[in-house]
Each structure stands twice: as C-alpha cells, then as structure tokens.
Design brief:
Structural class: alpha+beta
Helix content: 25-40%
Number of domains: 2
Shape: elongated
Strand content: 15-25%
CATH superfamily of the largest domain: DD-peptidase/beta-lactamase superfamily
CATH class of the largest domain: Alpha Beta
CATH architecture of the largest domain: 3-Layer(aba) Sandwich
CATH topology of the largest domain: Beta-lactamase
Oligomer: single chain
Length: 600
C-alpha cells in the first residue's frame, strides 16, 4: 500500500471515529436527560400552560311572541384551586394555615357537597402534593353562591394569592318549566348542542361563535388576554304566546288526567297567519303518582286520524263532482259488508237515510264508505291524487326537526279505499290535520304552520319569517261553502252532531263563542291482536269564531279510560280553550250595548 493510500484510509478512519464519538455523545445526553434530569424537565413541562384557550360564546335565548324568556343560558361555575401559588407557601404557609378553616366552613355552608372537615382534608392533601388544579366541588354553583363565597377573606385576596378561581359553565334553563318544553327542545354536552325541538332546528343561530384568548406575560405574571371576542348566539323569537300556552296546557292537563289517557296533544293556531300560539304534548308518567309531562312531540308524529279524515275525503269527492252535498245515502243498524271482505259499522247505528251534509255531522262510517267507493271504485289513484293537490302531502310545515310527512298511499284495492274514507290506512300528524282544517277556516287558503317569527341579535332583527301560502285554494268556493255548513252541523245540530250539546254535556257548543269543526275516533292497532274495540284515539279539530275565524285548534287524546267521547272530551277541551282565548285576546267589542266581533 502506498503512502497516499495509507493517508486516505487514515482520514476516513478519523472521520468515522469523530462521527461515532459525536453520536455517542448525543445518545449519552439523551439517556442522561431521560434518566437523571427526567424529574426536573417533567416539572418544567408541568408548569407550562396552553398559550391559547377558546372563549365559549353564550347561547342565544328562545323567546315567546311578546319577548318572554322560554329558554335561556344562565351562568354557573365550577370552583378550582391552584395550591401551588407562591403566597400560600410563604412564611411556612402562614396564609394557608390562617384561612383554611374559615374557607372550608364557608364551602360547606354555601355549597354543601361535603362537610367542613371533609373539605379541609381534601384541600390540605392537595396542598401538600402541590396540585395545580384541584376541583374543590363536583357541583356547579350559581351566581349568588359565587358572590357569597367571594366574601371569604382568603378568596377576597384574588386568585394570585388564594389560588381560588371560578370557571364559567352555562346551564340552559326554562323559566316557565314544562311549558312547551318538548317544542322548545333540549341541548346536550358541555358545548350545548341542540338535541331536539327548536334548540336543534336553530342550533347554528343559537350557538354563536367562540372567541380566543392567549396567555401573555404582563407585570411579571401570566395574564389571559382576549385575542378574538366571542360572538354570542342569536335569539329565536317564536310565535308562541306564553299566556295562551299556559291556558292550553292547563285545559289539556285537566282532561288527560281525568281520563287517565296515555297521552294528549293540543295545538292552537292563528288562522290567517299560521302562527302557532300554543302547542302542548303531555305523556302519562310511569309512576302512578307522578304528573303528566312533555316526553314526545306528538304534534308532528303521524297517526291514523280516524273520522277527521272524512272531511278530507268529502272535499275530494265534492270538488271532483262525484257527489253533491244534498245527495242521500242509506245507513243501517246492521254492518255494511263491502265486496264480501270488509265490514263497516257505525258508533251510533241508525236505520235512516242521510244527506252528505248530515252524514258528516253524524260521522257515519257506513255512509262515507258507500259515498267514496261509489265515487272512486276503480279509480282510487284519482282519489289520492286529488287529496295530494290540496297540499296535505307537501313537506312544508313546521320547524320542528324530525316531523313526519303524511302517508296517503294509493290503495291496491277498493276494500282499502273503503277504510280510507273514514281515516284508516292513512296517517297524518295532528299538525297536518290542523293545517287542513285551518285552510277551510281561511277561505280555502292553506298556510304553513309557523313556530318562529324572527331571528334577532342584540334586540335587532337579523331575519324575519313571513307567513307562507302552501296552496292558494284547496277547493272551489262552492265546495268550501258546502263543507263549512256540514262542519257547522257537527257542533250545532243537536239531533245528529257528534260535538253538539247532548243532555248534560255541552261538548263543543259554547254560549260565548261559535265553533265549527269535526270529531274523530280511531281504534288503536295492537301489535299481534289487530284493531281494538276497547282502545281508541279521540280528536276534535275546529275553528272559531265561526263567522270570522281567528283561530283553529286541535285536541287529540290517546287511549283514554272509558267512558269517553270525542265530542265530550276533545270537543269540550277546545271549547274551553276557545272561550279563554277570545277573552284573553279581546276579539269581541261592545257597540250600542251589544257584543260584536271586531273586524281586524
């Protein structure tokens, strides 16, 4: 090997040795840090705090039509303690020892989760360990409790000497309790995300936008400085009138309690605008001694409507020119057997001949089955298409998430059509039934039921929601006139009307306000057993004052205890609501000593 080659090998060897030594030094330093200096560096890391923290936005309010709070976010607080603050350890912990007893006494008295001795034991143990973030109580405290605690001599010294700090947490409250609770909805999670009802439907508007803060060194200490201000959530202004809501809930509560029903639903809507002024859903408690409460939003869940669908069927047949309001149909005490397959019976059997008008007043299943099968036998599709043209199947109603669409399928046979004529094999929600009858009251114009009128930010309107027309006319003026006269007879024909005054029961007939409408009774389908003759769903839907309708109202009650009657129970509930609503709104005025309906 030449001298030059030996020099080259020597240079490479030296380079390799240098690299190896450097690598060994780095590796040694890593091992030294991870072993010998590990504790020191872990303490340094523990003292570090995030440089940025979010500032939660305050969730917006839900208000009634007069600005009353239906749901609001109120501040509550968790209380923490940093036991490592320097002031607590100076002079052999003099400040801590002087005030720990009075602090724990105040905590026990104001919060009450633990005794004073238990608080002292928890805080002292944390103090000895040097805990940075001791959660003094698992319970959140309200603003008044915080103010009381801030009177404590240690806490008054501030967080840099006492180590005590309060962390905001907002809780959603409903000042009116269960009032329209299911419709207002609920939130879940620490972030307060809408879970149901309007809280879910308008979660984006209500939630707002979080801000951002950062920790900066100011005057020798860390201070939290706001970088981006939080934008609080907007307010949702509903069409609900808290006073009318209270009236409706009390009326419904009285009836479902009296009848020990499974559930009840009641909705009050302003006729011309479609504004929902009250909406109540009450469910029977599991505990026999408990009170009815809002568990499900039955107002937007579809069910078989029963006889309230008869009006819809007749409007279709009248408008298609299949029948005339004065046409006649015979009914019998005996069941009517259609095509040897389907048996039809009446709740109040009679051997007589009825006009179409009186058939609706008497709510005869046999009469409706005969009229509709006679009109649409072999053309059931035309019957369903005519109903669809009225707007009932349009999914344009209500702001409540998860609301059901109507189910009105074209029947495969005329036997099913005969059942559809009086409200079986079809499904509508109470809200959709109300929407249809409201169109009758509103000169044929179907409007969308509305629960929200505007979105506001700091009292200023950001977005307004105007009444929306679903159908300018659901039928001809002649059909509308005829069907209104039949709905009048339901309440005022004391011989045939199912909601008319009978003996001791006034039903839907009022001496104070004129009401027109329709009763409905549907047998409940019991899985595995079929339709029950002992369990029913009863309904009354009507509008008032009949001469110039201002409001439309529906009351539906599921599985009431016998004896029950749609006109007596649901009809009387609507009557009570109508009388109180007219008194509350002052629609009547007195001129020349006589009461007249004020034109608005």
């Amino acid at each position: 090997m030449s001298d030059e080659q030996r020099n080259t090998v020597w240079r490479f060897a030296m380079i390799f040795i240098i690299i190896a030594v450097g690598f060994a030094a780095v590796l040694g330093k890593i091992i030294y840090i991870q072993t010998v200096e590990r504790k020191n560096w872990m303490e340094v890391a523990e003292r570090q705090v995030p440089t940025h923290r979010p500032i939660p936005a305050t969730r917006g309010n839900i208000l009634d039509c007069h600005g009353k709070l239906l749901a609001s976010s109120m501040p509550q607080y968790y209380i923490y303690m940093d036991t490592r603050v320097e002031a607590l350890h100076q002079n052999n912990g003099k400040l801590f020892k002087e005030h720990i007893d009075t602090l724990c006494i105040d905590l026990a008295h104001i919060i009450g989760e633990y005794s004073a001795e238990e608080y002292k034991q928890r805080i002292t143990q944390a103090y000895k360990k040097g805990e940075k973030r001791l959660k003094i109580s698992k319970k959140r405290i309200n603003y008044l409790q915080r103010r009381e605690l801030e009177k404590n001599k240690l806490i008054r010294r501030g967080k840099y000497k006492s180590g005590i700090l309060f962390e905001d947490q907002y809780q959603r409250i409903k000042p009116y309790g269960v009032l329209a609770s299911r419709t207002i909805g609920s939130i879940y999670g620490e972030g307060g995300v809408g879970n149901s009802g309007l809280e879910k439907g308008f979660d984006k508007e209500l939630r707002g936008t979080d801000g951002m803060s950062s920790i900066q060194r100011i005057g020798g200490r860390n201070e939290m400085v706001t970088d981006i201000e939080a934008v609080n959530g907007m307010d949702v202004v509903t069409t609900i009138d808290a006073d009318l809501q209270d009236m409706v809930e009390h009326a419904l509560m009285s009836k479902v309690t009296e009848r020990k029903a499974k559930w009840g639903c009641c909705i009050l809507m302003e006729t011309q605008t479609g504004y929902i002024r009250a909406i109540a859903n009450l469910d029977r408690p599991n505990d026999e001694n408990g009170s009815y409460y809002e568990a499900q939003n039955h107002a937007v869940q579809r069910v078989e409507p029963g006889s309230t669908f008869k009006t819809i069927a007749l409007v279709a047949a009248l408008d298609d020119g299949k029948i005339d309001i004065d046409d006649t149909v015979s009914i019998s005490r005996q069941p009517w057997i259609y095509m040897r397959k389907s048996k039809h019976t009446d709740a109040h059997p009679m051997d007589t001949i009825l006009t179409v008008r009186s058939a609706l007043a008497a709510s005869s299943n046999i009469a409706l089955a005969k009229l509709i099968t006679r009109s649409y036998e072999g053309s059931a599709r035309k019957f369903v298409r005519r109903i669809e043209k009225m707007g009932l199947c349009d999914s344009v109603y209500c702001e409540i998430p998860g609301a059901d669409n109507a189910r009105i399928d074209v029947p495969k046979d005329t036997v099913t059509l005969s059942k559809m004529s009086y409200g079986y094999s079809v499904e509508l929600s109470p809200m959709q039934i109300l929407m249809f009858y409201n169109a009758i009251a509103n000169d044929g114009r179907m409007v969308r039921p509305m629960l929200v009128s505007s979105i506001q930010q700091d009292g200023e309107s950001v977005r307004d929601f105007k009444p929306t027309t679903v159908k300018s006319s659901i039928c001809s003026s002649g059909t509308l006139r005829d069907i209104r006269s039949a709905l009048h007879d339901v309440v005022w024909d004391e011989h045939l009307g199912t909601a008319a005054k009978k003996a001791w029961s006034r039903k839907a007939q009022s001496n104070l306000v004129s009401i027109a409408g329709k009763t409905g009774t549907a047998q409940l389908f019991i899985p595995g057993a079929g339709y029950s003759t002992r369990h029913h769903r009863i309904t009354f839907v009507g509008y008032f004052p009949e001469e110039n309708p201002r409001y439309t109202c529906i009351c539906m009650i599921e599985d009431p205890q016998y004896p029950y009657d749609a006109g007596m129970d649901c009809g009387s509930t609507v009557r009570v609501i109508a009388e109180k609503t007219m008194a509350y709104t002052g629609c009547y005025v007195y001129r020349d000593g006589e009461r007249v309906l004020e034109k608005r």
